[in-house]
Amino acid sequence: MPISRRSILGAALAAIPVVGLAACSSNSGGSGSSGSGGSGPITVGFSQVGAESGWRTANTESIKASLTEANGFKLTFVDAQQKQENQIKALRDFIAQGMDVIAFSPVIQTGWDQVLQEIKDAKIPLVLTDRAVTSSLSDPYQGFIGSDFKKEGTAAGDWVKKNAPDAKIFELQGTMGSAPQVDRQSGFEAVVGSQVIGRASGNFTRAEGKTAMEAALQSYPDMTLLFAHNDDMGLGALEAITAAGKTPGTDIKIVTVDAVKDGLKALYDKKFNYVVECNPVFGDQLADLIKKVHAGQSSTTQTIVTETTFDQSITQATIDARKY
Ligand code: GYE
């Protein structure tokens, strides 16, 4: 059985009050062909998941703002439109172009071993961002930056347990097989799993969240609480709930993850009840990690972000301070 690196790290860090980490195994790669050892910019190929959510847009902006020429990088950024085959193609292009470092946020956890082996064979250091992979390779990548999604799911479950102990829960899942879907679901399930009456995926988008919720309102008319794996799906669902003549926030309570500005506004308006933060702004930490792996250094576990939670006591000032 392949081993989930995220699960191992998640377990190891469970007792530490931070959720971000950058983990690194021994650097097997060294530098790629172009630019290594010279004083030119570090060439980086980055394959992003897509542009499916407010979180993703903020993440892309953060990465592009940090991996600039002024900071010593030459970035080639490719959007995979939430398709694994597009990512695999982009990764192969990066190998062919002889990038110094490759980075990507894998849309789903499985199915990467072949292309990861090709990156290893090319001796190009690899950094994963945001989402982890399940791999049977030894040292499949040299660095990782991302959040503890299981902890986010647990935080959502803890709020429900305390504030809506009798809730009949419907769960809107993110992209099936993605690390945040798998881990948020399992963290939540461990706390209030017996109360979940139905699940469907909204693929992390507002439009698919709305469609899935329209169907769920028909199939599960007795639901009293929605757990959505991100704000965007929660916002789409909110439209479906209102259209069905129910009041979001009271008839159907809503708990989400991300804490983008639109989600926090819905919380302030008492349409959402609880939001668990997932921080997309890690471009600067990624720049540091890329420099390290490019230099052949192995990186140890480090904190990258502190995440929090929000309830309806949120203030306008907090929303105004949110940049994304
Ligand atoms: O929560 C969601 C996005 O992988 C953490 O992906 C990310 C998730 C985020 O589509 O909004």
Strand residues, percent: 15-25%
User: Taking all residues together, what is the mean pLDDT?
Assistant: 89
In terms of structural class, how would the helical and strand content be classed?
alpha/beta
* CATH homology-level superfamily of the largest domain: Response regulator
Roughly how much helix do the residues carry, as a percent range? Answer: 25-40%
Describe the main β-sheet briefly: 6 strands, mixed
End-to-end distance: 39 Å
Q: Biggest sheet, strands in spatial order?
A: 2-8-6-5-3-4
Number of domains: 2
Q: Give the topology string: H per helix, E per strand.
A: EHEEHEHEHEEEHEHEHEHEHEHEH
Weakly predicted, low-confidence segments: 1-37
Approximate shape: elongated
What is the name of the CATH topology of the largest domain?
Answer: Rossmann fold
CATH architecture of the largest domain: 3-Layer(aba) Sandwich
Q: How many beta strands in the DSSP annotation?
A: 14
Small-molecule binders here are: beta-D-fucofuranose
In the CATH scheme, the class of the largest domain would be: Alpha Beta
